[in-house]
């Protein structure tokens, strides 16, 4: 049998292609994306951050899908699936020493007992300097009633301030549903 060589001509993206089959295993893309920011500066250790949360509404921010709900700093998920949760905090130094600052994400599977699932430390110098920290975690949300997240912050001497701004996200949480399991 003789071997026949063929030459590929590629795909012309201007062509129209008809499709009559089905695609399986392909995700539907991101269907939930939400950002919540802290609206008021505060100092000291806060476990959890319960007050002054608002959905970001500045500079073309968009809430995709149903969005998260929040009550006293406890965030509930709108639908089951895989979520990336991020916490970003900007601190202003208020102490006289070089200290550590901390932010973390806590998760519950029973709507009661919380465990730290992501943690970020940073050092901050004295004399009103600024420092940003960020932590992230991917969660498999299967139980909308019992699986929730909340956020904590602390610093070595309780004198450092978590910074906010009315129209910018200095300190905020971001939630993105990556897809279904």
Low-confidence stretches at least 5 residues in length (pLDDT < 50)? Answer: none
Query: What is the CATH first-level class name?
Result: Mainly Beta
Distance between the termini: 48 Å
Along the chain, the helix and strand elements come as EEEEEEEEEEEE
What's the CATH architecture?
A: Sandwich
- Rg over alpha carbons: 23 Å
Question: Number of folding domains?
Answer: 1
Would you report the number of β strands?
A: 12
Gross morphology is elongated
For the report, how would you describe the main beta sheet? 7 strands, antiparallel
Overall mean pLDDT stands at 83
CATH fold call: Jelly Rolls
How much helicity do the residues have?
Answer: under 10%
What's the total helix number? 0
From the helix content, strand content and strand pairing, which structural class follows? Answer: mainly beta
Strand portion, in percent?
35-45%
Describe the 3D structure.
- With 181 residues, the protein is mostly beta strands.
- The chain has a single domain, classed as Jelly Rolls, CATH 2.60.120.
- The strands form two sheets. Strands 1, 2, 3, 6, 9, 11 and 12 form a seven-stranded antiparallel β-sheet that branches.
- The chain has strands spanning 32-38, 42-43, 53-55, 69-71, 74-76, 81-92, 99-108, 114-124, 130-141, 148-155, 161-162, 172-179.
- The radius of gyration is 23 Å and the shape is elongated.
- The N and C termini lie far apart (48 Å).
- A hairpin with a 5-residue loop joins strand 7 and strand 8 (114-124).
């Amino acid at each position: 049998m003789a071997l026949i060589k063929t030459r590929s001509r590629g795909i012309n993206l201007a062509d129209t292609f008809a499709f009559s089959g089905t695609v399986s295993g392909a995700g539907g893309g991101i269907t939930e994306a939400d950002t919540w920011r802290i609206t008021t500066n505060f100092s000291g250790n806060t476990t959890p951050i319960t007050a002054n949360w608002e959905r970001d509404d500045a500079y073309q921010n968009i809430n995709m899908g149903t969005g998260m709900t929040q009550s006293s700093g406890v965030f509930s998920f709108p639908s089951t699936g895989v979520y990336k949760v991020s916490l970003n905090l900007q601190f202003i130094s208020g102490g006289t020493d070089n200290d550590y600052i901390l932010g973390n994400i806590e998760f519950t599977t029973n709507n009661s007992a919380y465990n730290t699932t992501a943690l970020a430390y940073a050092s901050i110098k004295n004399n009103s300097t600024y420092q940003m920290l960020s932590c992230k975690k991917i969660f498999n949300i299967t139980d909308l009633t019992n699986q929730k997240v909340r956020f904590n912050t602390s610093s070595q001497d309780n004198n450092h301030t978590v910074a906010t701004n009315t129209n910018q996200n200095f300190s905020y949480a971001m939630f993105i549903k990556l897809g279904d399991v």
